[in-house]
């Protein structure tokens, strides 16, 4: 596919999408959101891919939804365009997504990071929900995912004041998985993704799904889900291979069976 706003490549079993509207600090316009959805959907369908990395530029991961595109829209424009729903294909991807965040991750850009399973940030990363300063509120899930990630007190602070938090505060708060030096960011994200992709695909998908259930249900329901998913993995050849390899003191060769 010919993409205009993103760069797409594969590194072994890892799919890499780089947001590529540097002049607009990777502002997320409708075209970019659509292309990102297409690329993620293609990686989801590609059996050779086990995990995906979403990266931006050095100055900005993404500075939010494209304000110039939104500025003149009416209620019905926004209602029928359903930009939020356009993220459905990304969120539906069962393979793990790792965000590699350098510089600004604001508004929709912060929300894109929140839609990823692992967030690796460079020391320069800045997260914020400045929508309030524009007369709107987060619209790609920020009021919900940010609150679940960092709790009500901090989410209210960020969403109501529009202030930014740096990488260190974001990690301390639970939004960011790891902070790394800027020159290590992409390598760290790619190697985490390669590590994930090297494991049994069924186990990886089940692990991700079970953690997601923790976000959406109560404890006893979640524990019941985990138990069934755990038990089901004993139907895979990869479970036998993983455990036999441990006993035989060798590296497992998972075959996604
Ligand atoms: C469109 C944007 C943009 C955006 C930056 N640009 N952010 N264009 N939409 N979200 C453009 C600028 O207009 C400028 O274009 C170029 O990128 C460089 O940006 P500067 O502002 O000149 O850079 P700098 O002074 O370094 O400031 C960086 C910044 C600032 C602090 C990140 O750009 C900024 O505040 N951006 C807006 C952040 C924001 O409010 N995001 C939330 C959007 S609402 P030119 O042509 O002048 O060079 C949102 C809602 C999501 O995300 C839900 C919707 C359903």
From TrEMBL:
Is the keyword Lyase assigned to this protein?
Answer: yes
- Keyword line: Lyase
**GO MF annotations in UniProt:** enoyl-CoA hydratase activity
Pfam families reported for this sequence: ECH_1
Q: What is its EC number?
A: 4.2.1.17
Lyase is among the record's keywords: yes
Q: Which family does it belong to?
A: Belongs to the enoyl-CoA hydratase/isomerase family.
Q: What is this protein called?
A: Enoyl-CoA hydratase
């Amino acid at each position: 596919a010919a993409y205009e706003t993103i760069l797409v490549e594969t590194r072994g079993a890892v799919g890499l999408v780089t947001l590529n509207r540097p002049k607009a600090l990777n502002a997320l316009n409708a075209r970019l959101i659509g292309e990102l959805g297409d690329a993620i959907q293609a990686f989801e369908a590609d059996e050779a891919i086990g995990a995906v990395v979403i990266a931006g530029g050095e100055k900005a991961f993404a500075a939010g939804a494209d304000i110039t595109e939104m500025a003149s829209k009416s209620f019905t424009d926004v209602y029928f365009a359903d930009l939020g729903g356009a993220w459905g294909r990304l969120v539906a991807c069962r393979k793990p997504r790792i965000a590699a965040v350098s510089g600004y991750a604001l508004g929709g850009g912060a929300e894109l990071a929140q839609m990823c399973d692992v967030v690796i940030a460079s020391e320069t990363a800045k997260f914020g929900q400045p929508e309030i300063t524009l007369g709107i509120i987060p619209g790609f899930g920020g009021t919900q995912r940010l609150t679940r990630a960092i709790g009500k007190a901090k989410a209210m602070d960020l969403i109501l004041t529009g202030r930014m938090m740096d990488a260190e505060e974001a990690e301390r708060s639970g939004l960011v998985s790891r902070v790394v030096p800027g020159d290590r960011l992409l390598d760290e994200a790619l190697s985490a993704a390669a590590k994930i992709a090297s494991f049994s695909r069924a186990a990886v998908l089940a692990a991700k799904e079970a953690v997601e259930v923790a976000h959406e249900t109560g404890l006893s329901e979640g524990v019941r889900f985990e138990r069934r998913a755990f038990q089901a993995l004993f139907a895979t050849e990869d479970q036998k291979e993983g455990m036999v390899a441990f006993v035989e003191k060798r590296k497992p060769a998972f075959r996604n069976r």
